[in-house]
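User: Hey, quick favor. My workstation is busy. Could you predict this chain's structure for me?
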Amino acid sequence: MNNVFVYCELEGTTVAEVSQELLTKGRKLANTLGVQLEAVAAGTGITGHIEQQIVPYGVDRLHIFDAPGLSPYTSLPHTSILVNLFKQEQPQICLMGADVVGRDLGPRVSSALHSGLTADCTSLEIGPHDDKKAGKHYEQLLYQIRPAFGGNIVATIVNPENRPQMATVRSGVMKAEVLDPAYQGEIVVHEVARFVPETDYVVKVLDRHVEKAKNNLKGAPIIIAGGYGMGSKEGFDMLFELAREIHGEVGASRAAVDAGFCDHDLQIGQTGVTVRPKVYIACGISGAIQHIAGMKESGIIISVNSDPEAPINAIADYVIHGTVEEVVPKLIKYYKQNSK
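Assistant: No problem, here it is.
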């Protein structure tokens, strides 16, 4: 009762990376609260295949729902599973990924339970809260932290009264870490028919196409990211050339994507991909809060910027003052000379 729950998204019998990241964070939150961590997984033919992808992250109890019709994901049966399970178990916190599935499932569950939901969180912490208007003090609430008002502020959102406190987090924001490969957790295989009415299977997936990403931003050790300061598509061509020389990937800020300098799938930040490479080279990027939220965990941050007051310079390990037109060609020339 009143434990921390994580909904584990599945692709067949493979647990999504974002779910494992949230299990790691969920374990830390549960430790702070002095409660257990529980996980929920629903699919077809998953029993015996997913346990070792979930329990070693510190899961005390794994709820498995295994039945035909639960894979691939459709809204109604998965919503019924979580709503009815949460009515029974009364969790205080529920976390899920802020991807296609989580953005569909989260609002449905929170609406049915009247619980509230904070989307696209960049940080989750536990702390007290004083409601001065109502004269109430609360202990150990979930701080749901995310950029707000166009990225001008970082908002901390709390849900003092309703449960569960629900939040979605984008892939890559948290770091997945196995707690103990031999961790022992209870496995509960539920009778799905007790949770899901037959009418929920009215929607059937006849055909499904999953397209692989054109890039490997999440796994790239080196990323060269361009902002509005690159000036044009041709400016980005320089970044692609540099990326080829140093075996990196090219990313972009939202401003560059909105200006049409590059494709949307290269966008890094709150409304794009969250990355944590060993080296992040930011070229012509001012450093809005939303962008920083997507790359601040990078190992080494290098800023190439003509504006010494650019916000991104404050978090950069190294700053190269100069225009991208001056600096990037020199970088390309240097690496070409030294790679022979």
